[in-house]
Design brief:
Two copies of one chain form a homodimer.
Chain A: H1 8-26, H2 29-36, H3 40-46, H4 50-73, H5 88-109, H6 111-122, H7 126-149, H8 159-169, H9 187-202
Helix pairs in contact in A: 1-2, 1-4, 1-6, 2-3, 4-5, 4-6, 4-7, 5-6, 5-7, 7-8
The structure holds a DNA duplex.
Amino acid sequence: MATEPLTAERILEVTEDVLRKYGPAKATVVDVARALGVSHGSVYRHFRTKAALREAVTKRWLDRTAKQLRFISEGADPQGGSPTDRSAEANLSDWLKALFEAKRHKAGDDPELFATYEVLLSEHSQVVEEHIKELIGQLAVIVDDGFRRGEFTSVRPDPTEVARALFDATAKFHDPQYAPYWSLPGVEADFAAVLSLLLRGLRVR
Amino acid sequence: MATEPLTAERILEVTEDVLRKYGPAKATVVDVARALGVSHGSVYRHFRTKAALREAVTKRWLDRTAKQLRFISEGADPQGGSPTDRSAEANLSDWLKALFEAKRHKAGDDPELFATYEVLLSEHSQVVEEHIKELIGQLAVIVDDGFRRGEFTSVRPDPTEVARALFDATAKFHDPQYAPYWSLPGVEADFAAVLSLLLRGLRVR
DNA sequence: CGAATGACAGATATTGAAATCTGTCAGCTG
DNA sequence: CAGCTGACAGATTTCAATATCTGTCATTCG
């Protein structure tokens, strides 16, 4: 069998597995190289540092979520149907619910990758900053749509500003710092209460 | 000079100083005893464990803030005047601003006591839970007042539920986890945006 | 006799030496 | 000769021995 060429993508796949198995604290570059059947020097040919590798893996992982959410922000039905003319409020509500669900599942199903994400957070990584910017951008699309349709209003009608406020106000339901709280009973109700208050704050009546 | 009797209160005062000086990681019960000029056994006569002492100090410290805020939740003018008939919205806005300011100043001026508070948080201490319950209770008073005056409405008009939603939605501006963020430029604007959205969500129009 | 002491056992933290890991690079290999 | 290897230096982590701290309690002190 012709041994496949070592690509950055292949390294990322395997690194993700290694991180899943050992977690960010224990996984080493040598572990990754061993799993790939190469020397660790080869890994360094594709990623200048271990931090860069960690960032690239997390970016891939975060991008998968952002991609999912983009369907909603672009007006598609969350059930996966084709784009519809759903109200901005429904879109906003679905998007925030989907964000909460996505983060919660990531924390529960992939604790080690989630821990890796938290490492980046503590390092103030650009990757996390960009992920957040992307999410706020998606929110801004929904908010702007709401403004255009005359569904939403705000004192200062800058969609991005409002999007950031929505993002900040729902921090408890997507910021990794709160992950332990997401499995407690009553979170759902707390989330619903915040969401309802925020939606009412945007609604034109 | 008649050496004063060793009271719990005296121990708390001195422990606060010791914590301020050494921080929760370095301060020991022996340090506290030394500062009091007694043996550490005497401290244990008043507090069963070091954790209990730490909790008592933090409780005192948190209670001081809660007391300040109570003036606002009970309708007093924040400038310290006598109780007035200010609108519930003004009270709510002032209270949330005051909470943000109080936490921010505590984090900035008393980093070591703030760190002690964070230790309790990580221990899921009852003291912190009660502090939060007290704060939400104060918020509920303001919200209830708003309901009674016909200033506020909500889908489910339980003042405590709404109070909790307000508390959750402003977490980024009072939860110690975000303390580093409070000194960044732009926080004020972010806070104002969230506050404005929330107030609008409550307002009867 | 009630309050305080300090010696003590077990738990926790500190320290420094040894082991491992990261990142580089001269040389090897297909 | 492009891509990979593995020996190496410096950085970081681990580990075990040592020191310090917590919490108890028999004894002392006023």
